Amino acid sequence: MTEIGIVGGGVLGLVLGLRLRQQGHEVTILEGEQSVGGLASADSIGDVRWDRFYHVILGRDRQLLSLIEEIGLGDRMRWGATRTGFYVDGTWYSMSSALDFLRFPPLSLLQKFRLGATILGASRVRDWRALEEVTAIEWLTRWSGRATVEAIWLPLLRSKLGPNAEEASAAFIWAIIVRMYGARQPGIQQHEAMGYVAGGYDTILPALRQHAEQAGVHIRTGFRVSEVRQLNDGAVVLGRHGEILDVGRVILTTPCGTASALCPQLSTEEHARLRRVVYQGVVCPSYLLKRPLKGYYVTNITDRGLPFTGVIETTALVNPAELGGRHLVYLPRYLAQDDPVWGMSDADIAEEGFRGLQRMIPDLTDKDRVAHRVARARDVLAVSTRRYSADLMPPMSTSLPGVSIVNSAQIAHGTLNVDETIALATRAASALAPGLHSNTPAVLHA
Ligand SMILES: Cc1cc2nc3c(=O)[nH]c(=O)nc-3n(C[C@H](O)[C@H](O)[C@H](O)COP(=O)(O)OP(=O)(O)OC[C@H]3O[C@@H](n4cnc5c(N)ncnc54)[C@H](O)[C@@H]3O)c2cc1C
After folding, report:
1. Which residues of the chain have pLDDT under 50?
2. I want to staple 389 with a disulfide (CB 3.0 to 4.6 A). Which of 184, 228, 412, 435 is the partner?
3. Which residue among 39, 64, 196, 376 is best mutated to probe the pocket of ligand 1, counting the most ligand atoms within 8 A of its Cβ?
4. Prediction pTM value
């Protein structure tokens, strides 16, 4: 019997498994897909492979950078100074330096002053809990004014949250400001310092897997869990194909809805709480191009008529040589669960996205497109709504002594990134540790 079974071999499950193994536990990770990595995993586009969704590493991602060192990839880190764009009423603007900010025509001098004060003020806030009491829009309107909210903040919020932007609490925008503000480092021309590992997550994930396995973690891919049951002396995990695994404890790292569906023995209240967490989804076409676009790593879009919420030109950071000399662009579209776009075919999403991009860059032709693909994920980010951490955030412990939940919905004031995911895994490994040595259930909260 393995001591701990972890459901889900995304970054969270892998790092949690590694840390628990380093504490001396027997760990088996069960991943439904044929390879580990979940949202961070890579896929083919044309004749190259790169992340299905865009990923960037910031200088402040200390947990991630130290994991990259730990798995032996420190010398494969690449850094660059990137620029940020804004696309407003058919015009591209740079928003990459203080000078760009001062020149930015869509805002008056007073509006710029108030916007700057908002960013500075937010970056100094330490107690994010108070910010959970108000919506981001209310809070930003108070500090920046309605016009700036419409011109800048709402597009930014929509680029992460789609139609859920109006529901988010101020704690969410605070987390984004702190993350963005921290990316600017003196000495790098005021531009944002961003990085990646040569080869992308297609290099990181196999190295992480190998490191975990060398430490003694068992990893089973292609094991889709269909049910988790509490028994008298432990728990049992049932696989979709009839496999059964006896374990002392099970830790689910899947989204809340999946955790609820997999554990029928949870109480009615636990099911209700898990099901009330609102998830944001994303469809994300990406294109391999023969030419670069505008050289902005991220472009925020204020035009609501475009079928995506931002443009990520990955090769504004990543050396195109990594991608056979081509240029890689993602057009993320964040969606609510009931959005009709989920029903569209990949071909239609890719086509609509490319036509939208051509509206922004009129000299982009069909001949410039070498290949495309579409990635989708329904449960990407638990929306940080008002009073989220008190009312909705699921605790790690459940009423079943052998079953715990550790998932990204427990990152109350996060922006969805790997660094936070690793921090959660590390926190959970030490929080869960006392209960793992006995059959006594630990009382755990995220
Ligand atoms: C569009 C997008 C852009 C992003 N950009 C960045 C970025 O720039 N920088 C950054 O640091 N991070 C970024 N991220 C975030 C990063 O990818 C996530 O934080 C991280 O991958 C989350 O890992 P996880 O393990 O929590 O979740 P997941 O990756 O979702 O892992 C859950 C795993 O559980 C498995 N699973 C589910 N159900 C079952 C079952 N029944 N049985 C067995 N296995 C199951 C799934 O297959 C999956 O592998 C981005 C994410 C997206 C979607």
Report:
1. 185-190, 438-446
2. 412
3. 39
4. 0.93
